[in-house]
Design goal:
The chain has 216 residues and is α/β, with parallel strands linked by helices. It has five helices and eleven strands; from the N terminus they run βαβαβαββαββββββα.
């Protein structure tokens, strides 16, 4: 009998109940834990924590671990990596609340992931951005105890090496994902747009410094 390969999901959420209901039901019965980090990003306006019923909905699932955290996006995302390390989870999927699993053969996925568990690394999944078009997105963290977001949401410290989101990723077979924000209100989307503008103003100098080989 094959040993079970535990898989956790890292979920960063904030006032997104309808999207969460679509998302979590696409994987909750097939993963071991969901580390759900509740709270706004520092550069986003609004109350500190979700008040739309998102947290109450997630509390019904026995394998969801909820933590409240307000901070910069990279710091908030690091909390689920830290929880994975604390619980000795070697494989984690990063699934935002507007993302979901489209199709999965979990046994095949676990077999393929098990072959990759040799060193800390970020791997990709087949990710649909329209009904028929897809790309490979970095969504799989192997040995998350040695991976941290570094000052940005797409720069990483992987076992001491500072890198951008890896390019030329291959999709790990066994799972496909997708996303859309059609369940979010216009007000929510407007807040997201304003947040993203502020985030880019913060992140662009850091990205350019890394590109140019300057200290960051």
């Amino acid at each position: 009998m094959k040993p079970h390969v535990p898989i956790a999901v890292g979920l960063s959420y904030y006032n997104d109940l309808k999207s969460i209901q679509r998302s979590i039901n696409s994987y909750i019965d097939d993963v071991d834990f969901v580390f759900a980090i509740n709270g706004r990003y520092s550069l986003r306006d609004g109350s500190d924590y979700s008040d739309d019923g998102s947290t109450e909905y997630l509390e019904q699932f026995d394998n969801v671990i909820i933590e409240n955290f307000v901070g910069m996006e990279h710091d908030k995302r690091n909390r689920y990596l830290e929880l994975a390390a604390e619980m000795d989870i070697d494989v984690m999927l990063m699934i935002d609340s507007d993302e979901y699993v489209i199709e999965a053969d979990w046994e095949k996925f676990r077999d393929n992931i098990d072959l990759l568990k040799k060193e800390p690394a970020i791997h990709g999944v087949k990710f649909y951005y329209t009904d028929k078009e897809w790309t490979v997105y970095p969504r799989i963290w192997v040995m998350p105890q040695s991976i941290r977001y570094y000052r940005c949401h797409n720069i990483f410290n992987v076992n001491g090496q500072i890198i951008r989101s890896p390019g030329n990723l291959k999709a790990v077979e066994g799972i496909s994902m997708g996303m859309n924000d059609d369940l979010r209100s216009e007000q929510y989307l407007q807040g997201t747009s304003e947040y993203q503008k502020r985030m880019l103003e913060y992140e662009i100098p850091i990205r350019h410094a890394l590109r140019d080989g300057k200290p960051i």
